[in-house]
Amino acid sequence: QITLGRATKDNQIDVDLALEGPAWKISRKQGVIKLKNNGDFFIANEGRRPIYIDGRPVLGGNKWKLNNNAVVEVRA
């Protein structure tokens, strides 16, 4: 699994989105990408702001299957 978010002194993240723009709007743990046993990848939004997959919003608390070449956007 890979975590996306904003790294802090007490919170380590695999992909630190703070390096890309206005970090204060990104949750410390914005999302998690997991590989299932059947080979499918899913992203779970664990933050307050939506994560966009191919332009469709995935709201906090929801997950979405990632297709090949999916575009994942975390907007601040």
UniProtKB/TrEMBL annotation:
Gene Ontology cellular-component annotations: Ino80 complex; MLL1 complex; NSL complex
GO molecular function: G-quadruplex RNA binding
Pfam families: FHA
PROSITE patterns in UniProt: FHA_DOMAIN
Domain FHA: 2-58
Gene3D superfamilies noted in UniProt: 2.60.200.20
Segments crossing the lipid bilayer: none
GO biological process: positive regulation of transcription by RNA polymerase II
Name assigned to this protein: MCRS1 protein
Gene (UniProt): Mcrs1_1
